Predict the 3D structure of the following.
Amino acid sequence: MLSIGTTVLTVEDIGRAGDFWRAALGYRNRGEPSEDWLILDPPDKEHWHERGASLALSVTGYPQRYPPRIHLDLYADDQQAEIRRLLSLGAREVDWDGYPVGADWVVLEDTEGNRFCVVDVGDERRAELGDA
């Protein structure tokens, strides 16, 4: 059985990206970062092999591609508050005209241009996810 252990994002400035994602997710460094690699873990993940999505930051020198082929969906109980908080941390709004009517997500990008969605997890959606 497979499980996703780590999602890797390409970045240009590992310090800036690490600061953003630690503040955004409340994650912590797994170990000391190198010049081109850093893994961030959820605060309650004690061993690398435990379940729980980790986020790695990698300086590769490859240019960002738009639209990106992969992105993160971040679930928010209070979407607007989280968007304001993420913008204050350095995220940027993406000028995107592809939203369908009634979309429950907003597209942002981190300090390195990696796009992610902030998804409104309302009461109905929490029930669908089994969290209500």
